[in-house]
Amino acid sequence: MLRLLLLGIKREMIMKIRIGISGTKEYSDRDRIKKYCYKLKQLFEEDLVIVTRGKAYGAEKLAKNMANLFDIEYEEILPMHKKWKTIEYSSKVGFLNSKEYAENLDSLVIFGENLPEALSWVIDNLKKQNKKVVFRQ
Q1: In the predicted model, what is the mean pLDDT of residues 75-95?
Q2: Which helix H or strand E contains 117, and what residues bound it?
Q3: Helix (H) or strand (E) holding 133
Q4: d(CA 20, CA 112)
Q5: Is 45 left (phi over 0), alpha (psi -120 to 50) or beta?
Q6: Burial class of residue 62, CB neighbours in 10 A (0-12, 13-18, 19+)
Q7: Interatomic CA distance for residues 48 and 44, integer angstroms
Q8: CB–CB of 110/20 below 8 Å?
Q9: CA 106 to chain centre
């Protein structure tokens, strides 16, 4: 880096912000998630990645749809028991999945109430890492 500066070359680090969007599988307020994703896109432009746990229903499905609609980079952190079919789901696996998801986020936005246990573990892990958790009802 010092050599680049001595040569007069300016190099900027481009860091993308990784926002997790999650919630209950019953969440269905499409307009609310649409507005939120639109605001995120306006704020971060091309430096935004929306990350979910790859759920097929609810807030995460809506977040995936909105990421596609607004041309936002999208990523899924799949649980271990979906990546490797030889692993059966257990509370220990759920906890490890939650830890991996939390480590791959800068912030998490949660839509809905009555959160599942796995999402509570994600929130705990994010708080331990001093990362922000936003609740949207």
Answers
A1: 62
A2: helix 117-128
A3: strand 132-136
A4: 14
A5: left
A6: buried
A7: 6
A8: no
A9: 8
| Location of structure tokens 């705990």 | 124
The rounded distance, in Å, linking the Cα atoms of 53 and 6 is: 44
Place of tokens 């892990």: 125
Residue from 20, 102, 28 nearest 59 by CA: 28
- Both tokens of 52, joined, read 């979910």
Contacts of 31 (CB under 8 A, 6+ apart): none
Place of tokens 């209950």: 24
Find out whether 111 and 33 touch, Cβ atoms under 8 Å: yes
**Which DSSP string corresponds to 47-109?**
GEEEEE---SSHHHHHHHHHHHHTT-EEEE---HHHH-TTSPP-HHHHHHHHHHHHHT-SEEE
Joined tokens for residue 39:
């605001």
List pLDDT tens digits, range 23-46: 988 999 999 999 999 999 999 989
**pTM of the shown model:** 0.79
